[in-house]
Amino acid sequence: MSLRNPGHEGNPYGDLELTNPTAMRALSHPVRLAILSRLQRYGPATATELAEHVGATPSVTSWHLRHLAGFGLVRDSGTGGDARKRYWAASARGFRFTFPEDEEGQAASQVLSRAIFTQYADLPRRWMFEVEPDLAPEWRREAGLSNTTVRLTAAELAAVNAAMEQVLAPYVTRDLDDQPTDGRHVRFMRYVLPEAEER
Q1: pLDDT tens, 47-81?
Q2: pLDDT over threshold 80, residue 3
Q3: Hey, is 163 helix, strand or coil?
């Protein structure tokens, strides 16, 4: 089994948890990451609708969707009135994976981690030039980045990460009906980068 149903302990967003190295490697493909991200953000779509946003043809997109479905990351949404069109949906609003103890799992999680870092590497620069100039002042004041270095143990870092997730969890998990009508999507990109040991 590539996924396990999340509990709230250590996973307050209710994300799907990838535990199988094969699933981690499968998701590390940039088109598959783009498909999953699009479905999580915008909801059910057909392979044809997704294709124009993920850099692949409809037939290739369909192949990737079936591959993702094999690992439980996407599913047939059962929506749409046209039986000739298959609508796909993300199985959960997010996913997470850990850095396992075994060598195979460590290698697979590193491949997926690098793919995700690469996928979003240019996002801050594009936001700065394409989005930020048009934001209203009240949004611009709350946007941006922070760059803080602090000396922590691994256990303390885990506690800080957990505390941040607990603060965000009520907003991440609330139903669509409970979301504010004057709200907008806000992306939180949290880079946690332990530095090399001092020599």
Answers
A1: 999 999 999 999 999 999 999 999 999 999 877 66
A2: no
A3: helix
Q: Pairing relation of β-strands 74-76 and 88-90?
A: antiparallel
92 and 15 in contact (C-beta within 8 Å)? yes
Given its phi and psi angles, is residue 179 left (phi above 0), alpha (psi -120 to 50 degrees) or beta? beta
The whole model's pTM is what? Answer: 0.83
List, for residues 145-197, the tens digit of each pLDDT value: 889 999 999 999 999 999 999 999 999 999 988 999 999 999 999 899 999 98
* Domains located in the chain, CATH noted: 1-121 (1.10.10.10), 124-192 (no CATH)
The answer to whether 106 and 18 have CB atoms below 8 angstroms apart is no
Alpha carbon distance 71, 111 (integer Å): 17
- Nearest of 94, 124, 141, 98 to residue 189 by alpha carbon: 124
Grouping H, G, I as helix, E, B as strand and the rest as coil, residue 93 is coil
Instruction: Kindly report the number of other CB atoms within 10 A of residue 68's CB atom.
Output: 24
CA-based end-to-end distance of the chain? 43
The C-alpha atoms of residue 160 and residue 16 are separated, in whole angstroms, by 21
Largest CA distance in the chain: 64
Cα dihedral 126, 128, 134, 138 sign = positive
- Strand, helix or coil at 74? strand
